[in-house]
């Protein structure tokens, strides 16, 4: 299974509020990938906690013949369309697209780490992932998504569908 996370907490000049940014990003994803499943969208607090506005987050599963680095390139191209800027870590963003996993591949280099190194620590990733497949098994932890999610129950998340 190939999983991509979507997130936004800023309005964009072109597409509007964060939920619309995520929906439009899915339209761009469909131009490069076959979308299999789409999670619910959730509103979540920023991590680490800050005075940033709430985020909208979701996850999609896709089919593609692209290799992981090509997927990453496609995701970064979509972020450029949204005029995403990167000044510092964990800043507010118009759109954020992360490759969470590519089947059972374990990869670590300076540009890409699979599975995503912090996905299992974030309810805003694991909750929508469970919408898609709660039986998904983390390739390193060897733990099901539903069990990882139980450990994150203290993180606040709100279904906005």
Structural overview:
The chain has 161 residues and is an alpha+beta fold. The chain has a single domain (2-159), classed as 2-Layer Sandwich (Alpha-Beta Plaits), CATH 3.30.70. The protein is built from 4 helices and 8 strands. The chain has helices at 18-32, 68-81, 123-133, 145-150; strands at residues 2-8, 34-38, 42-44, 55-63, 96-102, 107-108, 113-114, 157-159. The strands form 2 sheets. Strands 1, 2, 3, 4, 5 and 8 form a 6-stranded antiparallel β-sheet that branches. A two-stranded antiparallel sheet has the order 6-7. The longest helix is centred in the N-terminal third of the chain and has 15 residues, at 18-32.
List the helices and strands and how they pair.
Blueprint: E1 2-8, H1 18-32, E2 34-38, E3 42-44, E4 55-63, H2 68-81, E5 96-102, E6 107-108, E7 113-114, H3 123-133, H4 145-150, E8 157-159
Antiparallel strand pairs: 1-4, 1-5, 2-4, 3-4, 3-8, 6-7
Helix pairs in contact: 1-2
